[in-house]
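Quick start: read one record
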Amino acid sequence: MRREYSCGAVVYTKLGEEYRYVIIRSRGGDYGFAKGHMEGNETEEETALREVKEETGLSVRLTEGFRMVDEYRLPGKSNVVKKVVYFLASYENQKITPQLSELSSAQLMSYNTAMSKLTFPKSREILLEAATFLDDGERLKK
């Protein structure tokens, strides 16, 4: 069994009182979050920051306390298991610039729109957890 290891982030910004999420669309048409393979001696966090920057053009800040893992067999490669670690990351006042060599698009979406677009159930679960984490943080501030 061969293993692949990637890291990425659920990227968000706040517009008014509403959180918006950066959702990428792969060249194959799947909707998800920016992510990619670890390189060299990178930490998980370093990989996530680099991949978000490469795929979306955004310089983000990781939100402390959020980490989720998705693990699955690669389609058409039953002997390859991919593990993806996702963080939560924020940005302000930047333009999303998708890496068109790898992506069809990268767009800012409301929670409901993102939930309707995300291709895989685990991605929807990760977004739900991220949104809950952010909402819980807002309640603690009040």
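The two ends are 49 Å apart (CA to CA).
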